[in-house]
Specification:
This protein is 34% helix and 14% strand. By secondary structure, the chain is an alpha/beta fold. Helix 2 crosses helix 3 and helix 4 packs across helix 5. It is elongated.
Length: 206
């Protein structure tokens, strides 16, 4: 499949051929959902912690004698039913990570790219380079291209001026090609690839 290549100024810069093996798949929501769930679980801090009855600083003495009071049988005041006692079955610090096969992760990325192309939300720019690190100038260029919510994927090395200029523009993310991922692709409206990124992706999935 061929796609028009544009410059940051909005001018035509030829065409680029996209591989059907990467951009031409029929998107499967189940695979995309699995990969996103894996990504977000891996990202989750898991530092939530409640104090159980073993962690509460309170006397461990028996509250009152076992028999003869007519009241319920109790031992420690640290038990969950008492005020100041430990939390029953509360959250504990843990990792939320789970395994996902590498082949499923790779397939998920190809399906995400295919979904964007099918929705006509892929734009190819010849080079993501800014002459100076000025946010105002770059925001004007994005406005010309109609980009208000986009993910930019550059080559292995990002242009520092472009990265700095795009940093303060809301709803714009910039990543090198090795950082491309399903979650970031799908959370932004448009996917903007440099020619170097397209070549790197085709090399990666060869």
């Amino acid at each position: 499949m061929e796609l028009n290549v544009k410059t940051l100024e909005g001018k035509d810069a030829g065409k680029v051929s996209l591989s059907d093996a990467i951009f031409g798949l029929e998107p499967r929501e189940d695979i995309l959902a699995r990969v996103i769930r894996w990504q977000l679980a891996k990202k989750q801090q898991g530092t939530h912690q409640a104090k159980g009855r073993a962690d509460v600083s309170r006397t461990g003495a028996k509250m009152y004698k076992q028999k003869g009071t007519g009241r319920a049988r109790h031992h420690s005041a640290r038990a969950p039913q008492f005020r100041g006692g430990g939390k029953a079955h509360g959250p504990v610090a843990r990792s939320h990570e789970h395994d996902l096969p590498k082949k499923v992760r790779a397939l998920g990325l190809r399906h995400a790219l295919s979904a964007k192309l099918k929705a006509e939300d892929v734009i190819v720019i010849d080079n993501l380079v800014a002459t100076e690190a000025k946010t105002k100038a770059l925001a004007g260029a994005f406005e010309t291209l109609g980009l208000t919510n986009a993910l930019f994927i550059g080559g292995a090395e990002l242009d520092s001026n472009f990265k700095l200029a795009a940093k303060n523009i809301p709803n714009i993310d910039v990543l090198p090609v090795q950082g491309i991922n399903v979650y970031d692709i799908l959370r932004r409206g448009k996917l903007v690839l440099s020619k170097a990124a397209v070549e790197a992706l085709e090399e990666r999935f060869k």
